[in-house]
Hints:
about 70 residues; mainly alpha
Amino acid sequence: MITNKSELNKFYRKLIEQEDISHKQALSIYEAMHAEAVSLGIICSENILEGLEVDLRIARAINRLSI
């Protein structure tokens, strides 16, 4: 669970500054990862957004929890 959002945002900003990847390269990586997941049977290539709403509701619920 995220306890310090400002530190996380700093981390992401620094990571973005350090990465030097073009949109074309990022898309190529995504497509390769997607093809691998389909070949392993982890996801179905027909509708990759299926079940996304449920995942988002679960993530929101988890992020609202506090210790």
